[in-house]
Amino acid sequence: MPLTLLAVFLGGAAGTGMRLAADALIPSEGFVLSTLTVNVVGSFVLALLVGRAWPRVPEWMRAGLGAGLLGAFTTFSAIAVTVVQLSATGEPIVAAGYLLASLALGLAAGVVGLWLGGDRAPRIDEVNE
Fold first, then answer.
1. pTM higher than 0.90
2. Distance, CA of 50 to chain centre
3. Are 52 and 119 in contact (CB under 8 A)?
């Protein structure tokens, strides 16, 4: 358990830094492209890891990469705040489009990541035999 907590802590610190960098590097005027980008990329990477690496890596690494790194990098709260801000500025159609794009692209990235990750990786119980 201590190793898992440490992995989540370190992964979260790295993910938060990556998120800040993405927000600084990806220009956002009106439509918050950085939030959409990190959430789609994060959905893809998490799904790819789940399909490819999860069966082979220990629990502490899954927690550090999933809940820690990618949990800090991607955030539903950022989507919610963006939708509320767009709605408050008189952009309800843009807000709705942003929400739909976030959900659709995130789900699509997840499907592609799982498909690419597939069942090609040996399961952890197979590796330990």
1. no
2. 12
3. no
With pLDDT > 90 as the criterion, what percentage of the chain qualifies? 41
* 3-state helix vs strand vs coil in the chain, percent to 5: 80, 0, 20
Contact 52, 121 (CB under 8 A): yes
Q: How far apart are CA 18 and CA 61, in angstroms?
A: 18
Taking each continuous run of H as one helix and of E as one strand, the counts in the chain are 7, 0
Q: Is 31 helix (H, G, I), strand (E, B) or coil?
A: strand
Predicted local confidence at residue 111, as pLDDT? 86
CA distance 90 to 29: 15
Residues 6+ apart with CB under 8 A from 35: 23, 28, 75, 78, 79, 82, 102
Predicted confidence (pLDDT) per residue in 18-34, tens digit:
999 998 999 877 667 88
Structure tokens at 77: 């709260």
Query: What is the radius of gyration, based on Cα positions, of the chain?
Result: 17
Of 18, 29, 6, residue with least CA distance to 86: 29
Closest by alpha carbon to 39, among 87, 93, 117, 105? 105
